[in-house]
Structure prediction request, 161 residues.
Amino acid sequence: MARMASGSPDDALDIVQDTMLHFARLYANRPEGEWNVLFYKILHSRITDWYRRTAVRRRFHDWFGKPRDDENDEEDPMARVADSTSPDPAEGVMRQEFTGALQAALRKLPLRQQQAFVLRAWEGFDTAQTAHAMGCSEGSVKTHYSRAVHALQIKLEEFQT
Prediction:
C-alpha cells in the first residue's frame, strides 16, 4: 500500500518503518487480534503525512527552480532478471504485463480508493475493519471500494477473458 501510494520503494520502506515504530511504541500491549487494523490505521496516517510533506517539498523545489528527486529515474536492475517461477514464457509475460498495468491503474486512483481496494481485496479485511483502519464510515468504505473496482475494471478490460 505504501509503495503504491508513494511510487517509490525507498519512500515506502521509510513509511512502513515509521509505522512499525509508532505501532510498537503505542500498541505492543494490545491483543494480537487488533494489531492488523491498528497497523493499517497508523499506515494510513503516515501515508497522508507523506503526501503533505511531498506537496510542500514540491512547492519549495518549484519555487526555487531546483530539480526534483524523481527526475533521477534509473532502470531497476531487478527488471532484467528472468522470472524462474513460470515455466511458460508467454504466461510470465502476460502476468508481468497485467501486474504492471494493475499497479499503474492503482496509482491513478485517488488515495482513499487505493487504500479501500488494497485493504479489502488484498488484505482480506471486512468492511468494518477497513472503516476502522481508514478512519471513516462503513458506507464510505463501500463507496470507495466500489469506485475503485469499477475504475480498475475499465482500465484493465483488455486483460479480462
The first helix runs from residue 2 to 6. The mean pLDDT is 80. The chain is about 70% helix and 0% strand. The helical segments are 2-6, 9-27, 35-64, 89-108, 111-122, 127-134, 138-155.
